[in-house]
Design a protein that fits this description.
The complex is a heterodimer of chains A (991) and B (449). Chain A has 991 residues and is of the alpha/beta class. Chain A is built from 31 helices and 32 strands. Chain A has a six-stranded mixed beta barrel. In chain A, strands 2-1-5-3-4 form a five-stranded mixed sheet, with helices on both faces. Chain A has a five-stranded parallel sheet with strand order 14-13-20-21-22, sandwiched between helices. The chains are: A alpha/beta (991), B alpha/beta (449).
């Protein structure tokens, strides 16, 4: 069950290759391959720096990390070296506290201060500012410079990142991250001397999916989180909790900060194996959904007698439905326990995954792949020497993985540099030596992606042709291993398309010599056939003849990316009895069941008509969710569910890694965790209540986990893990403080309501306190926030890692779920496919939905800032198709889709693309969901009325987003005045 | 032995430089011919190492030693090794931007074929198959003349494939710079040539291993290279005999400032400052006395009249407390304010700072700020301490390249030798030199967009 991270390699940081160096005449053991700065910091000594970064290496620009290097014990003079650029050598002697380097380091700050404005009181960075920390660290207190400071004009960089160039200390971190590390193209460095400027060529939104990291990587307040600034609080006032991003299946670790009852921001929570130091913008800004005006904050359909809903009210209302046959539909975004609990309450034969028949077939293939092949972590992915991406635009669906793939592409440069004796942390030299040589990337997709430019071979085909192509590759590989040259060339000759021939040959050659290859795919093409082919490919790559033939160091890795933050968790509890959506409808129609419970399920794949159909055939519709959806509007009972920042639970990421998210703040009643609602439903509705005979409401997640594991044999998690995760270390029964020890205003924040000091919120028995009291986080790897004496900024994470950039000191063992390769939805083979046959004759194109990062996650796509990012619908077809039909680049086209037997008509702007098949079209269509891909499409010309209507709709959509954004902000500020404080915890009756 | 005493300038014709035929008639391309037809790269390298030729771009690094670090990829039998890179590069640093330096221009405009021939020799020695002349963009005439010489060389099979019937191939390009002093630094030059921002690179790795586009590269100055044809043609003994008491060979010395006739002269290495200043530049203009001088361009320390008998070679000038640099004297007379001169120099350096490292980027404008106030009579006593601290702050080892230390050299030596002038400015609250009564205006940097 527990995996010892055999796939995680960490570039020799954790190995035992150490040397002895003398720092101020004291011996220290540091890693042999590293630079001196990293060595000193890993020894937890205070040496200031700016431009060096553990993930980006050294460039020697700021000169802040200077130390004195001595020849031997007798050398008293020494010479100044920049520690970030100096490799450690056995026996080297350096001075940290000698007068020369101390003075120089102070002078560097002094030089930066000649232009740095006195903005601290009004700067968002204050209190977590690396420049502040380093200034204090060098002891620079008095300014000698009496001249004027240079100033700049700032730019509008979009809704997320603020720009205040006057504060810049020219450390170059921003452009190095944005361009070099993340491959962004629209941000750069301009100018020279002391008026170097970091920005875009013209004002405009930053195009990279990682632009938000500028906020954390900038050591001063040049780049700040605009949304955080709009509703601002100081870092020391934030109440935080360790959480998991809920917006894709990567499971990046986050830290959610809250104040006065509203979520303020998300920052990166360091996890060496997964996200490292960086998040994508969806994870950073998607949290806005928690504050959205589309949140469900009140129950519907429950009568309550007093001012607030109580468990008794709930019992009285729900008991009417006792005896009805309920089907429960789980979801890819509800927690593991909520999904499982629902499944057990309704019974495995009445539980639906919320997936269509097609998707269940995909799930079947997926779990088989999870059984056979362990998915590598992102840090392991960065070690790959060959990357093959098939049918998934990871730059948009799971951007954080694309960022890791970009680092893997640098392995070629690192290898070349290493052969010349240049270590990987000498960033500029490695890039120079590598030039344009990249680790080979093969991209076989149905859309064009941002990684295309970096690929060795890039082929765009329609989904079914992708399957064919894979089949050809497998044939070529098998033939080659068998030494059968004739078959090999026959297969290749049979390929009609020149481009495909080149791709297949090139990929086969690459696979035969790669030592650490990686295959990536995902759910976006909605193709079970694709998964079957990938399964085959992997079987070939893992077969004995192949391994023997190629002498690979390690077998090919596979990562399959599903859509949701807990898709894999859901997958782990599916079995042959699980129902598909079509089967649910059938059962309702056949009256084998009457009613539905929807668990955080917006039914995004169903058209309006089908939703109505569902509603009509359903006697009682109970919806548990946190945000409004078309189905929640139709429900009889709506129970408001806690969002990720307000609740507790476990998500399982694409690897099968189980991760816990913690409440940053308790929700305002009646909002509560969905599993708490299920407790009520269990007690009131379900006669099948195996576990809760005493009608108990579980007071904590821990208690629920214990119940689930003792009562049900199919609970997929090892109970020993939970003891570990809730254990905060040897003497930490006190719990860990969510607030910093400098949190202010505690006794005065309710003063406008009542002058009495309010009782602190009690915690939910989960080892974190809603106060500043408790243990310091340093003894646990789930840290609500990072801080250390002298290190107020996010650089304080250095103090909690064994080596800078390496594992956390107190990391706990990863827990991976086991996948037994059981059949999912076995009886579906005879099930009806609800999609009636619509004639494909009129449809000339195969349409693939090009999911953008801001539209790809249902929970977040509606937040105003993300809605504003979608400028227009776009449809891309080949240059050839366009010219044949006499369509012009940039004109409007009318798209007719065949979606589940219905024809959908949408307008989009045309973009012509080279090198795609004539019958393939891909597009960014805001009206379609991630479940809509691989559709039939026909294209015609819209008339003036169509265009006018469409443009009007768009204007309204944009306007609404802007109004919504303003309203939300206003409401949040009003809410600040009426802070909800829960006095005790547990259930609804605890007012 | 040849009796040629001024090899570098002998064939210079500023009005109409020699065509290739004329150049060959006067003995041109014989050095290159000997190198590529009669000698292996290793043999040429030995000759140049033994000759003792030192770099003329300002650093004075032995040329043979620089070349010897280049990894070679030819087997004993003349075939290429398997791991040979596709390109190896020779770059001529013709980005002459050091204030007070105009010697390379003289050579480029006057006898362009000499450089082309030199580059063939150098390329052969390091196995380079591609060469660039990185030329200061303002040298329009030189660009035209060089390109014409290169075209003639191609036409006459001195460039391109199979030069003069050998296996040697060399392509030579003129690349005019978009303009920046820092491009004179060899690694910044390489970055500029690649189309990147002209920030210098950290060393190691050295350009010989990872230079232009990550390939083995050597960067040499125009004057350094121009010696090669003559050494190859006339031999090491002749070369050393040109200056028996000093570094071998001749040097182009120059003088500017209030001297009677500013100019460039080719003289034996080790000629004294006195001889250059009085014999060739004609001494100070009437009414002016020598107060001090920078011996080798703006980024060298001041020397005083007491140093006039110092031979102008690398060691001697270094012992006197300065640097030979480019060998171009910038003369300070007694009627011009030293503070103003130093301010002018620091304005230049702060403007030319590439902006990469903190001491240079933020230190040079700070020095400008202080010097401006002093020059305008708004100096304070603590300003001299500030300037001294800045000199220490921007010194060698603390910065990413040598620009800031170069800026510090005139400043610190002026603070030492002309301390009284600085103090007077501060005490009196004005500049006492008659030619400088009006207040100095500094360009305020409104940066960004």
């Amino acid at each position: 069950m527990n995996d010892s991270s055999s796939l995680d390699s960490d570039k020799g940081k954790e190995n035992n290759n150490k040397v002895t160096i003398y720092i101020d005449d004291v011996a220290h053991q540091v890693c042999a391959n590293d630079n001196l700065l990293a060595g000193v910091l890993s020894e937890k000594l205070n040496l200031p720096y700016f431009c060096w970064h553990p993930s980006m290496g050294s460039v020697g620009a700021c000169r802040q990390c200077a130390v004195t290097q001595f020849q031997d014990e007798n050398d008293t003079r020494g010479r100044m070296v920049m520690s970030c650029m100096t490799p450690v050598t056995e026996g080297m002697r350096i001075g940290l506290k000698d007068k020369g380097s101390e003075k120089f380091r102070e002078q560097v700050i002094g030089a930066m201060m000649t232009n740095h404005p006195h903005d601290c009181p009004v700067c968002a960075e204050g209190g977590e500012c690396h420049l502040q920390d380093m200034t204090v660290m060098t002891g620079h207190t008095s300014r000698d410079y009496v001249g004027s400071k240079r100033t700049f004009t700032n730019q509008y960089l979009g809704e997320f990142v603020g720009h205040e160039m006057n504060r810049c200390i020219t450390c170059y971190r921003c452009v190095r991250f944005y361009s070099d590390y993340a491959g962004g193209e629209d941000f750069g460095v301009y100018g020279s001397a002391n008026h170097v400027y970091f920005g875009r060529q013209t004002d405009g939104e930053l195009e990279s999916e990682f632009s938000g990291n500028l906020v954390e990587i900038c050591p001063t307040g040049v780049f700040t989180n605009k949304l955080f600034s709009a509703h601002y609080t100081r870092k020391w006032d934030l109440q935080s909790a360790p959480s998991i991003c809920a917006h894709c299946s990567i499971g990046c670790n986050t830290s959610i900060g809250e104040r006065f009852g509203s979520v303020r921001r998300v920052v990166n929570r360091f996890n060496h194996d997964i996200n490292g130091y960086f998040l994508c913008d969806r994870g950073r800004y998607g949290i806005g959904f928690v504050n959205s005006d589309k949140r469900i904050r009140q129950s519907k359909g429950i009568k309550f007698s007093s001012k607030q809903l109580t468990n008794l009210d709930l019992a009285k209302s729900l008991v009417h439905f006792r005896g009805e046959k309920f089907i429960g539909i789980g979801s890819e975004r509800a927690s593991l326990e909520a999904n499982f609990y629902l499944q057990q309450l309704v019974g495995e034969d009445k539980f639906s995954s919320g997936l269509s028949n097609n998707e269940m077939a995909m799930a079947n293939e997926h779990q088989a792949m999870l059984h056979h092949y362990k998915a590598p972590s992102l840090s392991a992915i960065e070690q790959s020497d060959l990357v093959i991406i098939i049918g998934e635009d990871i730059t948009q669906t799971s951007p954080r993985m694309a960022l890791s793939v970009r680092q893997a592409l640098r392995n070629k440069s690192i290898e070349l540099a290493s052969a010349m004796g240049i270590p990987s942390w000498q960033d500029a030299a490695v890039r120079t030596i590598g030039g344009e040589q990249l680790t080979p990337l093969f991209s076989l997709n149905s859309v064009s992606t941002k990684l295309d430019g970096s690929s060795k071979q890039n082929l765009i085909l329609s989904p079914d042709k992708i399957c064919e192509c894979l089949s050809n590759i497998i044939q070529v590989l098998c033939a080659f291993i068998a030494g059968d040259k004739v078959v090999t060339s026959n297969v290749i000759d049979a390929l009609k398309d020149e481009a495909t021939v080149v791709f297949v040959k090139s990929l086969a050659d690459a696979l035969l010599i790669a030592k650490n290859p990686l295959v990536i795919s995902g759910w976006s093409l909605q193709s079970a056939a694709l998964f079957a082919q990938i399964n085959q490919l992997m079987a070939t790559l893992h077969s004995e003849p192949f391994i023997a033939h190629t002498q690979q160091a390690s077998k090919a890795n596979l990562a399959i990316l599903p859509r949701g933050c807990n898709s894999i968790g859901l997958l782990s509890i599916l079995d042959e009895q699980t129902l598909s959506i079509e089967q649910v409808l059938d059962k309702l129609v056949a009256e084998e069941a009457q009613s539905l419970v929807l668990l955080e399920q917006e039914m995004g794949g169903l058209s309006e008509a089908l939703l109505q159909n569902l509603r009509e055939n359903c006697q009682t519709l109970i919806v548990l969710d946190h945000s409004e959806s078309p189905i929640s509007e139709l429900a009889d009972i709506v129970l408001p569910v806690a969002a990720v920042s307000e609740g507790d639970g476990h998500y399982v990421n694409y690897q099968g890694l189980v991760q816990r998210y913690h409440q940053a703040h308790p929700p305002v009643l009646p909002i509560q965790d969905s599993w708490r609602w299920l407790d009520s439903l269990a007690n009131c509705i379900f006669s099948v209540n195996k576990m809760n005979k005493d009608n108990v409401h579980h007071h904590s997640l821990k208690q629920l986990n214990e119940s689930l594991s003792t009562q049900f044999e199919h609970w997929p998690v090892d109970q020993r893990y939970f003891n570990q995760s809730n254990n905060t270390g040897s003497s930490n029964e006190k719990g860990i403080a969510r607030q910093t020890h400098r949190a202010s205003g505690r006794t005065s924040q309710m003063a406008n309501i009542s002058v009495h000091e309010n009782k602190t919120t009690q915690s939910q028995f989960d080892s974190f306190n809603f106060s500043m009291e408790g243990s310091v986080a340093s003894t646990n790897d789930e840290m609500p926030f990072t801080w250390a004496p002298g290190w107020n900024s996010n650089q304080s994470i250095n103090q909690y890692q064994t080596q800078v950039g390496g594992e956390l000191i107190h990391r706990t063992q990863n827990l991976f779920l086991n996948f037994d390769n059981k059949r999912i939805n076995q009886h579906n083979e005879n099930g009806t496919n609800r999609t009636p046959q619509v004639s494909k004759e009129n449809f000339g194109f195969i349409f693939v939905n090009q999911i953008t990062w801001h539209q790809g996650d249902w929970q977040a796509h509606n937040i105003p800032e993300f809605s504003l990012l979608h400028k227009r619908n776009i449809i891309s077809v080949s240059v050839q198709s366009a010219s044949e039909n006499e369509w012009q680049n940039g004109q409007y086209l009318k798209l007719s889709f065949n979606v589940e037997g219905e024809e959908l008509s949408i307008l989009a702007t045309l973009q012509t693309v080279e090198y795609i098949p004539k019958d393939l079209a891909f597009g960014q269509i805001v009206e379609l969901s991630t479940k809509h891909s691989n559709l039939s499409l026909s294209i015609s010309l819209p008339d003036k009325a169509d265009i006018a209507q469409h443009q009007q709709k768009e204007i309204i959509r944009i306007e609404q987003a802007k109004v919504s954004k303003a309203n939300i902000l206003t409401q949040l500020k009003i809410n600040d005045q009426t802070i909800p404080i829960r006095l005790v915890s547990g259930g609804l009756d605890d007012v | 032995m040849s009796d040629l005493t001024k090899p570098l300038t002998q064939l210079i014709n500023l009005d109409k430089p020699l065509s290739i035929e004329e150049y060959i008639n006067k003995g041109g391309y014989q050095g290159a011919s000997r190198a590529i037809k009669d000698l292996t790269p290793a043999q040429v390298l030995n000759i140049i190492s033994d000759s003792g030729l030192k770099g003329r771009g300002g650093a004075g690094f032995p040329t043979g030693m620089k070349w010897s670090c280049v990894p070679m990829f030819t087997n004993v039998d003349g075939t290429k090794k398997d791991n040979a890179p596709e390109f190896k590069y020779l770059v001529c640093n013709a980005d002459e931007m050091e204030p007070g330096t105009f010697k390379d221009r003289y050579l480029l405009e006057g006898v362009p074929h000499q450089l082309v021939e030199a580059m063939i020799i150098a390329a052969h020695t390091i196995e380079a198959n591609r060469a660039y002349i990185f030329l200061r963009g303002e040298y329009h005439l030189a660009a035209k003349r060089l390109q014409k010489a290169i075209d003639e060389a191609y036409e006459n099979n001195w460039l391109g494939k199979n030069i003069q019937g050998t296996d040697i191939c060399l392509d030579l390009y003129v690349h005019t710079s978009a303009g920046r002093y820092i491009c004179g630094e060899e690694t910044a030059l390489i970055n500029a040539l690649e189309g990147k921002r002209a920030n210098p690179r950290a060393k190691p790795p050295f350009p010989q291993f990872s230079g232009l586009f990550g390939k083995p590269t050597v960067v040499n100055n125009v004057e350094t290279l121009s010696n090669l044809p003559h050494i190859l043609k006339n031999g090491i003994d002749w070369f050393k005999a040109l200056s028996p008491n000093s570094d071998p060979g001749t040097k182009l010395y120059a003088a500017c400032g209030r001297v009677k006739s500013a100019g460039v002269w080719e003289l034996p290495m080790g000629t004294t400052i006195r001889e250059v200043l009085y014999t060739h530049a004609g001494g100070m203009m009437d009414g002016y006395k020598l107060k001090g001088l920078l011996p080798g361009g703006a980024s060298t320390d001041f020397l005083l009249p007491e140093h006039l008998d110092t031979p102008m070679d690398f060691d001697s000038i270094s012992k006197a407390g300065s640097r030979l640099g480019t060998g171009g004297l910038i003369v300070l007379d007694d009627k011009n304010c030293p503070v103003a001169m130093v301010l002018n120099l620091l304005q230049f350096f702060s403007q030319e700072s590439c902006g990469w490292c903190t001491p240079c980027r933020d230190g040079t404008p700070w020095a400008v700020e202080v010097l401006t106030r002093i020059e305008n009579g708004q100096g304070r006593p603590e300003d001299l301490d500030t300037l001294a601290n800045l000199c220490d702050f921007m010194w060698l080892g603390k910065t990413h390249c040598a620009l800031a230390p170069g800026a510090v050299e005139p400043l610190k030596s002026a603070l030492r030798y002309f301390h009284d002038d600085f103090e007077q400015h501060i005490d009196k609250g004005c500049c006492s030199y008659s030619s400088n009564q009006s207040s100095v205006h500094t360009a305020t940097h409104q940066g960004g967009h």
